[in-house]
Amino acid sequence: MNDIAHNLAQVRDKISAAATRCGRASEEITLLAVSKTKPASAIAEAIAAGHRAFGENYVQEGVDKIRAFRERGNTDLQWHFIGPLQSNKSRLVAEHFDWCHTIDRLRIATRLSDQRPMEMPALNVLIQINISDENSKSGITLGELDALAADVAALPRLTLRGLMAIPAPESSYERQFAVAQQMAVAFEALKARYNTVDTLSLGMSDDMEAAIAAGSTMVRIGTAIFGARDYPQ
């Protein structure tokens, strides 16, 4: 077993253990492997280990990888865009990705819907909540959610699937859980209103257990699978 396959197995075991502790089935939680800045060879190792869902933060890098793997015949992969999205990059996301996790304004959502090719399934989208009210992060407040959700749900080439958040780091499990629970309450309310909603993208390496206990259905894990990232200087 190579390092990435071993790491994936360890992360899956941690997800399973966290789910068991709170009485959930591990199958309820999707593992999204965050492959930003990682080479195609690393993703290929994860694919060989049976993984199929990958998250990318940078539009052009992600599109290049999607194209490369499609050329190799890997047509069963799921590609999630999880970074901030500028208007001038929306077409690339609409034309290549399966999911976008970072909807925080109607203008971007409308562009994605208008630019989604008709021969492709509707783009799955999550509304990003700035749950810790950090100036450095994108996302809307919970108070703005109802209005944006109604507008996004009405767009013909998008499917509203749920919510995403990146909480501020917290040192204690109790505080992590309290913040995650705020997201879970909002998610359950949204799910009651829209029958397409089924995904709460919440939890990374440091707060995964608390997120799962609160009700997350998707955790985003990068370094624990692929190792430390090499950012361009």
How do the helices and strands line up, and which of them pair or pack?
Blueprint: H1 3-21, E1 30-34, H2 40-48, E2 53-56, H3 59-71, E3 78-81, H4 90-96, E4 99-103, H5 106-115, E5 123-129, H6 145-153, E6 158-165, H7 173-193, E7 199-201, H8 208-214, E8 218-221, H9 223-226
Helix pairs in contact: 1-8, 4-5, 7-8
Judging by the overall fold, what is the CATH architecture of the domain at 32-144?
Alpha-Beta Barrel
CATH class of the domain at 32-144: Alpha Beta
* Main pleated sheet: 8 strands, parallel
Report the radius of gyration as a whole number of Å: 17 Å
Number of strands: 8
Indicate the proportion of strand residues. Answer: 15-25%
CATH superfamily of the domain at 32-144: Alanine racemase
**How would the global form be characterised?**
globular
Q: What is the terminal-to-terminal distance? A: 32 Å
Arrangement of strands in the largest sheet: 7-6-5-4-3-2-1-8
